[in-house]
Amino acid sequence: MKGTIVDVDIIAKLSLPRIEKYKTTFKLSSYEHAYAIYVWNKMLAGTFIPVMQAIEVSLRNAMNDAIATHCGTPLWFTRIYRSNDLPSNFQKLHHSVVNRHTHFDLDLLKKTNDPSYKVILKSTYERKIKNGNINIKNSYNQHIVGNLMLGAWVTLLNADYVDNTHNTKLWPALTNTVFPNATGREKNDLFNIYNDIRILRNRISHNEPICNPNGQFISIDECIESVKEKYNKALHSILLLSSKRHKVFIESHASSHFNMVCSKEYLNSIVDTYVAGKIKICKYCGNKFETVTNRKCFCRIK
């Protein structure tokens, strides 16, 4: 796909301001080149998905297990979360589990604003779940935990849940249990570490530029180093939780795939897909290809 096809067909659908952001940030002369960077950014975003999933699962499991043990019950949510901090979807999740344990139609009662809704919801929870067997309690816990977003766990790392004087809150009481590999300095910075991960995750989800959130001029080399730094910080956030999981992940295909995509050679191959260039013949494989970046043949990209 070359020339005006990108300008007229694709850029119009994506919106000019979105592509303009890449054109300005990297001081590019054509929209075709800017679109190529946009495509590369999307591919980079894709390489972050496995590590983000690993962080979210590792963090929620470690925190849930530690807090449930600390509280002596898997039904810890309203006991630990401050009322203003309860996840926005908690009541909906709570409702859906309780609804399984009553012959009343809680969905209908809630929809019709029936005054008995809250009474039945509370009494059913008390009788069937809070006073139920451990399997019922664990089922409730897993439904809530499995549907909470990363931000819900990051919230529990903020200063409101820290008590360095009397050790009556989550941290530092559970720090060594949840984050066994955190150093002294990192133990005091856990909220910032994982909140940065949350912010990056949101940028990826909204297809925003990964390497340069401020939109100021940056070179491609600086961009690549910036993205690598973010990826390494993400990997380190797994290490804080589990050495074993960290080792497995860095040896996985996901990490090697990231290293391949986050390279100038790979980017150049994308640029050459959208920007017209000169014909070259690879001296190694004999492949004929077109390039504006003077890149290597695909056979030389490891």
Residues in helices, as a percent range: 55-70%
Largest beta sheet: strand ordering: 1-2
Q: What is the helix/strand order?
A: HHHHHHHHHHHHHHHHEE
- The parts where pLDDT drops under 50 for at least 5 residues are 1-5
Q: Which secondary-structure class do the elements indicate?
A: mainly alpha
**Assembly type of the shown chains?**
single chain
Average pLDDT works out at 90
What integer value in Å does the Rg equal?
Answer: 25 Å
Sheet-strand content, in percent, reads: under 5%
Q: If helices are DSSP runs of H or I spanning 4 or more residues, what is the number of helices?
A: 16
Number of strands: 2
First-residue to last-residue Cα separation = 25 Å
Largest sheet: 2 strands, antiparallel
**Mass-distribution shape:** elongated
Describe the structure.
There is one protein chain. The protein is an all-alpha fold and 302 residues long. Among the domains are: 55-85 and 150-262, no CATH class; 88-147, no CATH class. It contains 16 helices and two strands. The chain has helices at 4-14, 16-25, 31-71, 77-80, 90-98, 106-111, 117-130, 134-146, 150-155, 175-178, 184-187, 190-205, 220-239, 243-250, 253-261, 264-274, and strands spanning 278-281, 288-291. A two-stranded antiparallel ribbon has the order 1-2. A hairpin with a 6-residue loop joins strand 1 (278-281) and strand 2. It is elongated and about 75 Å long. Mean pLDDT is 90; it is low at 1-5.
